Amino acid sequence: MSNGDKRPELFGFFHEETFTTAREAADARGRMTEFAVRWNYRLTKIYTEKAGEEPQAFEALRAAVKRDGAAVVVPSGAHLAPYGSVADLVKELEQASGVPVLCSEPVEAQ
User: Fold this and answer.
1) Which domain of life is it from (predicted)?
2) Where does 39-85 have alpha helices with state H?
């Protein structure tokens, strides 16, 4: 993408342990990319927390959102749950970016 791309920046995030297979993780990446295109965002990075590691990717996401003010997309709130209260984390990320945290996965009706 060119430096003149005026679409808003978007960071993706997911926690690998939320998926049962590598294929599910790859599919989630694809859906984040499709989400960005559909809603006219520029997906610049997907932060991926690896199973069994310290929360390096989440902390890097947190710092990047505070620094750049980019929107965040996750497959679901379950990907934020390992780091504390989902509601509190969503609020923190939304305040830093000025944009609601977005969900790339379809929400199924109950």
Assistant:
1) Bacteria
2) 56-68
Alpha helix stretches (DSSP H) within the chain: 22-38, 56-68, 86-97
pLDDT over 80 (residue 108): no
- Please give the order of strands across the beta sheet that includes 102-103: 42-49, 9-15, 71-74, 102-103
Between strands 71-74 and 102-103, the pairing is parallel
> Is position 109 within any domain?
no
pLDDT band, residue 109 (cuts 50/70/90): very low
Query: What does the pLDDT read at residue 51?
Result: 79
The two structure tokens encoding residue 36: 């960005």
Q: Tokens at residue 26, please?
A: 């790859």
Give a yes or no: residue 4 inside a domain.
no
- Segments forming the whole domain that contains residue 40: 9-103
What is the gyration radius of the CA atoms in the chain, in angstroms?
13
Phi, psi (deg, nearest 5) at residue 11 = -110, 135
The amino acid that residue 62 corresponds to is R
CA 31 to chain centre: 11
